[in-house]
Amino acid sequence: MLPADWRDGLFLGRLDLGDGPTPVLLSGGIAYDMSSLAPTVADLVDAAAFDPALGFPLGDVEDVLGRARLLSPIDLQCVKAAGVTFAVSALERVIEERARGDADKAQAVRGGLEARIGGSIRSVVPGSSDAAALKAALIEDGMWSQYLEVAIGPDAEIFTKSPVLSTVGSGALIGVRSDSDWNNPEPEIVLLADARGKPVGATLGNDVNLRDFEGRSALLLGKAKDNNASCAIGPFVRLFDAGYSISDVESAQVLLRIEGPEGFLLEGESRMSEISRPPLDLLRQCFSEHQYPDGVVLFLGTLFAPTQDRDAPGRGFTHKAGDLVTISSARLGTLVNTVSTSSEAPSWETGISALYRNLAARGLIRAQAAVLAD
């Protein structure tokens, strides 16, 4: 699950070693338990305590991962997402809207829309005078959409994807609503930022998308996005250092592979070089006139919008239970999840109060207080 150069990087994550969530750092092939210094990932990021020497060595990373349960690498951070940040996905959102969430109508809408505005939307800079002129022309032609507003207008779409502590990690089941019949994965790079809005690292995410729900009405975004087990993050956060920076995020390629239980195969890629808004601008807009004391993870959006037919011709792609979804990027590793329904995936039961009861029972809150006092 780790990238080829993992021994050269510094990685942050969470493991369950048998007694509860434990923040860990991976460095030089060794896993370090950081819980006595910082019982949560949010505490570790807040203190910028990314020195493995401050933790307790657990042993060789491969050995530790073989005996521990991998969790989502984040805990108390707010989970935010930027939508419609690539031209292709912007067009697909407009298609969903015009098809009213009906997959059978998507193909006809797609052809006409691509011919009319495909080239224009790919070349314009969001918020620019050219974007304003394109908006005026599209309004004149009756082609304007709320999705085009956030695709080329000055304000990005930033929404809350998932409640604190509800994300799942690599290897877990990922949930799609049982009453959705047009949906897809959204492979994305996810930034981790501290409480001041400073990016400290990046990881991979799957922002599961229900095209039928959001296509019927944008006001159903919450129901389309926020469901049990519908947000996967991992495997680890690669922390920014001399060997890995935001420029590596901006030039990254994200690969997607879906293997269906019936033998179906779909492969795609998302190239961050084609993003319409710089990742740091999206992060800036996330923190504009808002505070996040425990930090934020921000999904940056995806170029990937599957149109390959799976069942009936012209109907495109939708998930089936049992799909194996693999999202990978050369410097971040591999996130793997199997698709289930949100109703059948394991229920989310460890909230904030349960987490702190666990930390208190393990003596970690008192241990942190003693470290801070020293």
UniProtKB/TrEMBL annotation:
<protein>
    <submittedName>
        <fullName>Fumarylacetoacetate hydrolase</fullName>
    </submittedName>
</protein>
<dbReference type="GO" id="GO:0016787">
    <property type="term" value="F:hydrolase activity"/>
</dbReference>
<dbReference type="GO" id="GO:0044281">
    <property type="term" value="P:small molecule metabolic process"/>
</dbReference>
<dbReference type="GO" id="GO:0046872">
    <property type="term" value="F:metal ion binding"/>
</dbReference>
<keyword id="KW-0479">Metal-binding</keyword>
<dbReference type="InterPro" id="IPR051121">
    <property type="entry name" value="FAH"/>
</dbReference>
<dbReference type="Pfam" id="PF01557">
    <property type="entry name" value="FAA_hydrolase"/>
</dbReference>
<dbReference type="InterPro" id="IPR011234">
    <property type="entry name" value="Fumarylacetoacetase-like_C"/>
</dbReference>
<dbReference type="InterPro" id="IPR036663">
    <property type="entry name" value="Fumarylacetoacetase_C_sf"/>
</dbReference>
<keyword id="KW-0378">Hydrolase</keyword>
<comment type="similarity">
    <text>Belongs to the FAH family.</text>
</comment>
<feature type="domain" description="Fumarylacetoacetase-like C-terminal">
    <location>
        <begin position="200"/>
        <end position="339"/>
    </location>
</feature>
